[in-house]
What does this fold into?
Amino acid sequence: MKKLISILLSTVLILSLFTACSSNKKEKYSDETLIIGYTEEAAPFLVVDEKGKATGFDAELFAAIFDDVKGDLKKFTFEKVEEGYVLEDDGGFIDSKGKEYSASLLLGGVSKNRGTFNEDYSFTEPIITNRIIAVVKNNSERKTFKDFSGAKVALLSENAKAAFQANSAISSVCKSVTEVKTAKEAFGLLDSGSADILVTDELSFKPEKEAKNYYVMENELDTIEYVFACAKNSGWKDSINEAIKELKDEAYGNGDGFTPLVEKHFGYYASPIE
It folds into this structure.
């Protein structure tokens, strides 16, 4: 009987050890895991599926530089956080032993001139820029912002609408304003004369094959800078900045791996990084 009990106890111990090993292998959070937060999906910057797999420009860029910035970390995971989440302070991510972890970075089309962002976080140098521009037909006589006076204006994108409305010097002198949902619709209005000027953003305009048929006014209404956000006074931003510059450097590693990544997701080189 004692022998039987001993065998049963040994079996239970082996099974418990096996279960513990399996659990450790499947552990989502640990001291070796970097948690990257995002507030909302924002294609083409970041899309996260129902299994937590992240794709998009930000996800691919970070994967490309992770080995250069990870330190003692072994892996990273993307997790949704609430707006205003305080990096490396607010927790919310618990492992199987009840230990709590915080997100250290915020990705996903984060623009540094949004809300109280500048006060709440530190951030990398601009990675992607998106100028809000004014576009006319190549043969149009309207070539400068002074020519908004009496113009019929079309607006494409929420970013363009916000910048246009914020510039009262031009928005207040227009004859009419029409909001459109697609570049095709906007080009149609310009071509037909139903609109004199299109206010849009480069991320919506430049990838279009018809873009070469239109003239872009020299100045911009606004410039949106997209970054990786880091905890306030964090060392992350410096290591990420350096890693991205090395990824862009033709003489480093396998050559410029940054430019093809930008062009893949945005359709043109939408970065200020030289």
Notes: The CA atoms of residues 120 and 232 lie 7 Å apart. The chain has a mean pLDDT of 89.
